[in-house]
Amino acid sequence: MSRTPNTTPAKSRSRIGTWFDHHLYSLVASFGRMLRKPWSTALTIGVMAVALALPLGLWAALANVERFAGDVQEARQVSLFLKTDVAADRADELAGQLRARADVAAVEHRTPEQGLAELRGSGGLGDTLSHLDGNPLPSLLIVTPKGDEAALTSALAALPEADIVQHDAAWRERLDGWLRFGGRLAWVLAAMLGFGALLVVGNTVRLDIQQRTEEIGVLQLLGATDGFIRRPFLYLGLSYGLVAGALALALLTAADLSLRAPLEELARSYGSDFALRGFGPLAALAIVAAAGVLGWIGAGLVTGHYLRQTRPTDT
């Protein structure tokens, strides 16, 4: 008795292979269509890259400003200068009592000797300090709050050993306010310019669709699915987005390199080792991928609208 060979797996593999080949062909062909129209492609990619680079540059600037301003915990610290007649043992005891408070995260005790050594090492005061009789500096307790900073500052000021309580809360709150405003501004710019980039890709894909109207009509008459027809245009939008994202990173890198040397020189004049920090590898990949998705969405919206308008109806 003869058996009929089972050709279902082969047909399935053939169908999957064809699907994969068409995706690969659509991706490669999208780059070919871009290269055939260099000026139009350069204009589209350039506009998209600038639209992406502006909010990304603002985000990078805000991140560097936050890093330059110092760690948030350090900005929250309260400096408690004790009276000069408070002995070191009493300062250590007071530091231990403060560490036991529920609204205190940490306490650092700096002795007068440590303060004097720090002043001498800061430069410019060595000769002046050498003429002093004794050490005029008091003990310093640097308190990091855990809860309400204002209530803790008031409690520290009420201590009998306290001489001066220094807390730059107003400065930190103003800085935090500006950073929050900058972050919100970056999101607004990203939304507006991202929408603009989406429109640029959509218009470019629309022009490409108009040039291939007859080809699309033939495919529809032959029974091609919307997905089959849409696929090359989706990859075209994806290609625009990927290249534009890479160009936006290149523009930001060029700006970073042009500003890094003078900024480092300025920071060194203030005794700081601050340096600009750009996007890491993972962040760069995420940016390029997001730009590609943006191009894909723009192409999908335009192509879907066109296909809905031109799909033949059954009579």
UniProtKB/TrEMBL annotation:
Residues 188-303 form the ABC3 transporter permease C-terminal domain. Forms a membrane-associated complex with FtsE. Belongs to the ABC-4 integral membrane protein family. FtsX subfamily. GO terms for biological process: cell division. Signal peptide: none annotated. Pfam families: FtsX (PF02687), FtsX_ECD (PF18075). InterPro entries: ABC3_permease_C, FtsX, FtsX_ECD, FtsX_proteobact-type. It comes from Lysobacter arseniciresistens ZS79. It comes from the Bacteria. Part of the ABC transporter FtsEX involved in cellular division. The lineage of its organism: Bacteria, Pseudomonadati, Pseudomonadota, Gammaproteobacteria, Lysobacterales. Keywords: Cell cycle, Cell division, Cell inner membrane, Cell membrane, Membrane, Transmembrane, Transmembrane helix. This is Cell division protein FtsX. It is found in: Cell inner membrane. The keyword Nuclease does not apply. GO terms for cellular component: cell division site; plasma membrane. It is a multi-pass membrane protein.
